[in-house]
Design a protein that fits this description.
The complex is a heterodimer of chains A (about 375) and B (about 525).
Chain A: H1 2-33, H2 40-48, H3 52-76, H4 85-102, H5 107-136, H6 140-158, E1 166-168, E2 171-173, E3 186-187, E4 193-194, H7 198-214, H8 216-226, H9 228-234, H10 238-255, H11 258-265, H12 276-286, H13 291-307, H14 319-356
Antiparallel strand pairs in A: 1-2, 3-4
Helix pairs in contact in A: 1-14, 2-13, 3-7, 3-10, 3-12, 3-13, 4-5, 4-6, 4-10, 4-12, 5-6, 5-10, 7-8, 8-9, 12-13, 12-14
Chain B: E1 2-13, E2 16-27, E3 31-35, H1 42-49, E4 57-62, E5 65-67, H2 72-77, E6 80-83, H3 95-100, H4 104-107, H5 111-123, H6 139-152, E7 157-161, H7 169-184, E8 188-193, H8 196-202, E9 205-210, E10 213-218, H9 225-233, E11 251-261, E12 267-277, E13 281-285, H10 292-300, E14 307-312, E15 315-316, H11 322-327, E16 330-333, H12 337-341, H13 348-353, E17 363-364, E18 367-368, H14 370-383, H15 400-412, E19 418-422, H16 430-445, E20 449-453, H17 457-463, E21 466-471, E22 474-479, H18 486-493, E23 499-501, H19 514-518, H20 522-527
Parallel strand pairs in B: 3-8, 3-9, 6-7, 7-8, 13-20, 13-21, 16-19, 19-20, 22-23
Antiparallel strand pairs in B: 1-2, 1-4, 4-5, 9-10, 11-12, 11-14, 14-15, 17-18, 21-22
The chains are: A mainly alpha (about 375), B alpha/beta (about 525).
Chain lengths: ~375, ~525
């Protein structure tokens, strides 16, 4: 059996490695085409990753990417495409900021209250799409895209000064949260501070793995994703599963903005990072919906983000990093499918070969059974 | 003069050699039968001849000239046409439209095409009416349209893939008359089947294929069914015969006036009532598409009945969800194991959990118990002779028969009270078939109630304690499997006969030895 385990690791690694190699190669072609050195930008960016302050930035950024990507991945595991993580986390962050600015409980209550607010807001916003899909058959892709647009408008409304908004110069904010809802970071000295909620990201990753692989619910969810018809025949209620998965995905999405909100900005303003939900889709893809894979992917993405500004100082355009992210996503989709099919064929051939050689489980005591060699 | 000659054809698929050194020579103006068990490699061979697959080795010659096909279009250009087992027709188009679809360049789409269709239909006695809407036609008429489609495209060699699988015995005779007309006109027919009686009555020559290779050629007049059967299987044929009755009077499942309607209001199931007792196998005969799928869905809970009740022992389960029904002892061997029975990309031990995720040994409370599930998978693999190198390989890498044995093992492991077995041996090799029958019989002895749905009349007659015939969503006839013949069942399956099926003039000499009739080669025995 060891052979198959090794095989699985090989297959798991082959996809991303091929995708990254192809993406780097294609980016180099872009650089050559624009008359630039095709290697130097990478060396510059790698160099950036060795500075401790950039490392802190990367980890902080990656924690949010990680949570967003987990939210997307939950959907992916059961063939649901929650493209609305972007709207869910922004709306959730805003609601959390508003609650944090108006409620003032002791920290032991305030922090859970804020987390709960984020969870519920995200779940609610995703749940709308879930209900629409279950009751009216509306595609969750369409519904969540629309809800993203609506979320933007809701946020703009809540920012109005006579609603919850507080104007700070030209900036719209929600006012500063009470300190009981601030989460202290890990002090790294000169390098800066790592958000305290990076720990939350790690815990979510562990929880994700446990729920999917070690609970009945996780099995049902994965079965629904692998084969809707087989899952239904096995006793999964498809509608309830869609709704539940949507709610969980949304709840996790709601947490994606909290590391920076509760660890750094303490207010939801125009400067609050946007687009994390969309990046999460690419990261979940690259990480193959596995908690470890997503962690690497999130770090890679954050590195491209945080190391690329340096390029501007060396006469390169930092957009090369964005091109690369795009190319990675494209090559990921192609290479994963290719590797998956290759792996399947390889395994079938191997099973055939083992059977032909008489290695049949249960035929251990040298009475190797006759094997149908068709 | 040879129409088609295949020499040394070998085709390998991942994990299996589907064809190995196959030789097949079809003379012009003959019906050449290709027989072999399910999974012997007949379909692969025909896909190669029809240009859907490329052989790894070997040559194809058409009328003496060597050819290579890279697509079905190439094959049609050489006069080779295929009538598929599953029809490829558009219901909402007329016969004429279906025939010209894709070949508009040949004779246009108007009067000229209609003339051509008429001419072909008359010449080969197909009786096709060009302006009928396809959805109005029955299965046999659709098949004739498929044949005409192929002729229309200029085929001189026709491949018919299991053409009789969907037909009742009377329709089979009519088809054979058509085939004789075709061959009288100098066309060649390759007839794929695993039914020996049909093969012997229609073929001029027979090539037997077993485990992917041709094991011999036979001429019907010099061959007995037994010889042919043994060539096909390589050993004695198993029979699905059930020894003594184990039927009790304790009802396990009681269905009363079950009705299920399509969204438009058309009844898919109407007034279905039956009771299955402990130790009883109730067989449902019927041409596919007459409500069998809907009946299974209603029993397992994938569809809710519009009216009527289903009782499991003393519990009314009509409103229960699928999971609750399964937890309470309904086992399910689905008709389409790839869609409903397996997670193809998941390892075997996860497939062992599927459908029983809430039950022991798969779960402890809300937690999965992978260790116990894996351990139990090893037991199933050993007890049910699932041929696999391990339990971590994906279900997709097993052959159909082994997948099915895994499913049977999984369902039996939870000691069901009631088993829904829909085509339990479809597409599995003969060894697995016998094993599956044994498992069903054994469980029946221990008091299991079984609903058996099958297209294989011999399987139905051999295994069942009671037989019912489903036609158009209704149970129209019942029969005693000890005395009924496939022909009698066949006429009920077309709706021609209803009520209790009995011999009109009773007692042929073999009436007191019913097991002869039950064996798969029974029809041939009578023909002798």
């Amino acid at each position: 059996m060891k052979k198959f385990d090794k095989e699985r690791v090989l297959l798991a690694v082959a996809g991303p490695v091929i995708a990254l190699a192809v993406a780097f190669a294609l980016s180099s072609i872009v650089l050559i085409a624009s008359g630039k050195n095709p290697v130097e930008p990478y060396t510059l960016m790698f160099e950036q990753a060795t500075y401790s302050d950039v490392q802190v930035l990367i980890i902080n950024q990656a924690s949010m990417y990680y949570i967003a990507a987990l939210a997307v991945a939950i959907g992916f595991r059961m063939n649901l495409f929650n493209i609305g993580v972007d709207g869910q986390y922004q709306l959730a962050a805003m609601m959390t900021a508003i609650v944090g600015a108006h409620a003032n409980l002791p920290a032991a209550l305030q922090v859970p209250l804020l987390l709960l607010t984020a969870l519920c807001t995200g779940a609610f916003w995703a749940g709308i799409a879930g209900v629409l899909k279950v009751t009216r058959g509306v595609s969750e892709v369409v519904a969540t895209i629309m809800l993203n647009a609506i979320a933007t408008s809701v946020i703009a409304y809540l920012w109005l000064p006579d609603v919850f908004g507080v104007k700070v110069g030209n900036n719209n904010t929600t006012g500063v949260m009470h300190e009981s809802g601030w989460i202290p970071g890990f002090d790294m000295g000169d390098a800066g501070e790592i958000y305290g909620l990076v720990l939350l990201a790690v815990l979510l990753g562990i929880g994700y793995w446990i729920v999917l692989n070690r609970t009945r619910f996780g099995f049902d969810l994965r079965a629904s994703g692998a084969s809707e018809s087989a899952a239904a025949a096995s006793g999964v209620d498809p509608k309830r599963m869609v709704l539940t998965a949507m709610l969980i995905s949304g709840a996790i999405a709601g947490l994606a903005g909290l590391p920076i909100l509760m660890g750094d900005t303490h207010t939801f303003s125009l400067n609050f990072p946007t687009g994390i939900g969309f990046l999460g889709i690419g990261i979940a893809l690259l990480g193959r919906n596995s908690p470890v894979g997503i962690a690497f992917a999130a770090l890679l993405w954050a590195w491209l983000d945080k190391a690329s500004p340096e390029l501007d100082f060396h006469d390169y355009d930092k957009e090369i990093a964005v091109i690369m992210q795009g190319l990675i996503v494209l090559s990921v989709v192609v290479s994963y499918e290719a590797v998956r099919e290759w792996g399947l064929r390889r395994q079938q051939r191997r099973v055939g070969a083992e059977l032909a050689a008489g290695h049949v489980l249960g035929a251990d005591n040298n009475t190797s059974k006759e094997v149908a060699g068709r | 003069m040879t129409a088609v000659e295949l020499a040394g054809i070998t085709k390998r698929f991942p994990g299996v050699v589907a064809n190995h050194d196959i030789h097949l020579t079809v003379r012009k103006g003959t019906v050449h039968a290709l027989v072999g068990e399910n999974g012997a490699g007949k379909s692969t061979l025909m896909k190669i001849l029809y240009g859907m697959q490329k052989p790894d080795e070997g040559t194809i010659a058409v009328e003496g000239r060597q050819v290579t096909f890279s697509s079905p279009a190439d094959a049609i250009a050489r006069g080779i046409g295929m009538v598929h087992q599953h029809f490829m027709l558009a219901d909402n188009l007329t016969v004429l439209e279906n025939v010209v679809l894709g070949s508009e360049k040949l004779y246009g789409i108007g009067a000229k095409a209609r003339r051509k269709i008429k001419e072909l239909s008359d010449r080969y006695g197909l009786g096709v009416e060009p302006d009928r809407l396809m959805e109005e036609l029955g299965v046999a008429a659709r098949q004739r349209v498929e044949i005409l489609k192929v002729l229309y495209r200029g085929a001189t060699t026709l491949i018919l893939d299991e053409p009789t699988a969907v037909l009742v015995p009377q329709e089979v005779e009519a088809l054979f008359d058509n085939l004789r007309d075709l061959k009288a006109e100098g066309l060649s027919v390759i007839f794929i089947s695993h039914k020996l009686g049909e093969v012997l009555s229609v073929a001029d020559e027979i090539t037997v294929i077993r485990r992917g290779t041709t094991v011999g050629t036979a001429v019907p007049s010099q061959t007995t069914p037994r010889q042919l059967a043994e060539m096909m299987v390589g050993s004695e044929l198993p029979t699905p015969e059930t020894a003594e009755s184990t039927v009790t009077d304790r009802p396990v499942i009681t269905v009363d006036k079950l009705r299920l309607a399509a969204p438009g209001g058309k009844a898919l199931l109407d007034d279905i009532s039956f009771t299955i007792h402990e130790g009883e196998i109730l067989g449902i005969a019927g041409v596919e598409g007459n409500g069998q799928t809907e009946l299974v869905d209603a029993l397992i809970g994938l569809r809710n009945a519009d009216s009527g009740t289903i009782k499991l022992a003393d519990d009314e389960i009509t409103a229960w969800a699928t999971r609750k029904r399964r937890e309470h002892g309904i086992g399910y061997i689905p008709e389409d194991r790839h869609r409903h029975g397996l997670l193809l990309d998941a390892p075997l031990w996860e497939n062992r959990i599927l459908g029983h995720v809430t039950e022991k040994p798969n779960a402890k409370g809300v937690w999965l118990d992978p260790k116990a599930a894996q351990e139990d998978t090893r037991r199933i693999v050993a007890e049910y002779d699932v041929r696999t190198p391990g339990i971590d390989v994906t279900a997709a890498s097993l052959s159909g028969g082994n997948q099915q044995k895994l499913i049977v093992g999984r369902e039996m492991s939870h000691k069901p009270r009631f088993l829904i077995a829909a085509h339990p041996t479809r597409g599995v090799d003969v060894g697995a078939q016998a094993a599956i029958w044994d498992h069903i019989r054994e469980a029946r002895r221990e008091g299991l109630a079984v609903l058996l749905i099958s297209a294989d009349l011999d399987e139905l007659i051999g295994l069942s304690d009671t037989l019912r015939v489903i036609y158009n969503g209704k149970l129209v006839a019942d029969a005693d499997p000890a005395t009924v013949t496939p022909e009698e069942l066949g006429s009920a399956m077309t709706g021609a006969a209803t009520g209790h099926l009995e011999h009109p003039e009773n007692a042929e000499p073999g009436a007191d030895t019913p097991e002869i009739r039950k064996s798969p080669e029974a029809p041939e025995d009578e023909a002798r």
